[in-house]
């Protein structure tokens, strides 16, 4: 087989998380790699704003984004993991609902996977352990930072996903990486989804109280109903953090920067490098 034939077989794929960085990378690569295959791993627990944003992005790309659904849903995997909620230490959700569907989709094809880690970020992107998948980081290589991302989205006319009004990370409505104030935002914007997240907690608590006397919660140190009881306190803390951020950040910076800074003061863990791009 010739080298040329080998080259032809290489697939170029770009995962969209529903967040700003991966969306900007999709736009950035649109004309650079016309054969790019865009995909979105749907956990079945995405926010409605994410689907709306994907539609906007598809219009800007002039191409469909392939939706990859895991064979087994979140509830199945929760049973497999003995009824425990995923957490930063036990991130079985990312592995089974985001990474595995990608690996199944590409199979043994030779693949270059474009990952949207920015030049100003200090975190590792997911690099598949499968030898046929090679990860590349165009933003890092081309020095594109957060301002660059915002410019790309603005020029493409798609802006930011609607959830950025109250939450800065893409992903599942119940994501355990949410900061306290983002949970309050979920309760206000999507009370039905908040209630479903509470149901998961209760199911897990009931099971583990019966089995081992242990509690599991989405948010560290308290259940969601307990967190909501502290809503006023959380909101006051968030307002104070916003004021501090507004003073710290140079004038004329995007509001998103102020919000991110304020939320990071609650918890600045970098989030998931697969789901939050
Ligand atoms: S968004 Fe959060 S809960 Fe959903 S798969 Fe990713 S890490 Fe897990």
UniProtKB/TrEMBL annotation:
Residues 12-121 form the Phosphoadenosine phosphosulphate reductase domain. PANTHER family: PHOSPHOADENOSINE PHOSPHOSULFATE REDUCTASE (PTHR43196:SF2), SULFATE ADENYLYLTRANSFERASE SUBUNIT 2 (PTHR43196). This is Phosphoadenosine phosphosulfate reductase. Signal peptide: none annotated. InterPro entries: PAPS_reduct_dom, Rossmann-like_a/b/a_fold, Sulfate_adenylyltrnsfr_sub2. One of its GO terms (molecular function) is catalytic activity. It comes from the Bacteria.
């Amino acid at each position: 087989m010739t080298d040329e034939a080998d080259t032809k077989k290489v697939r170029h794929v770009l995962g969209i998380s529903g967040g700003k960085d991966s969306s900007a990378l999709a736009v950035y690569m649109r004309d650079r790699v016309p054969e790019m295959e865009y995909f979105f791993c749907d956990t079945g627990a995405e926010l409605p704003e994410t689907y709306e944003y994907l539609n906007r992005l598809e219009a800007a790309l002039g191409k469909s984004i392939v939706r990859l659904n895991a064979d087994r849903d979140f509830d199945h995997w929760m049973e497999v993991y003995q009824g425990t909620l995923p957490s930063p230490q036990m991130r079985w959700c990312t592995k089974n609902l985001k990474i595995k569907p990608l690996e199944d989709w590409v199979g043994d094809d030779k693949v270059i996977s474009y990952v949207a880690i920015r030049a100003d970020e200090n975190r590792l992107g997911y690099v598949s352990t499968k030898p046929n998948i090679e990860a590349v980081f165009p933003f890092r290589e081309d020095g594109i930072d957060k301002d660059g991302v915002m410019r790309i989205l603005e020029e493409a006319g798609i802006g930011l996903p609607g959830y950025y009004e109250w939450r800065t990370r893409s992903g599942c409505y119940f994501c355990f990486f949410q900061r306290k104030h983002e949970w309050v935002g979920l309760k206000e914007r999507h009370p039905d989804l908040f209630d479903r997240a509470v149901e998961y907690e209760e199911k897990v608590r009931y099971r583990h109280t019966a089995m081992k006397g242990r509690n599991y919660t989405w948010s560290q140190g308290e259940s969601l109903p307990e967190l909501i009881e502290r809503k006023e306190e959380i909101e006051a803390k968030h307002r104070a953090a916003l004021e501090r951020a507004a003073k710290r950040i140079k004038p004329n910076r995007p509001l998103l920067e102020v919000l991110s800074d304020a939320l990071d003061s609650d918890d600045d863990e970098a989030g998931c490098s697969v789901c939050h791009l």
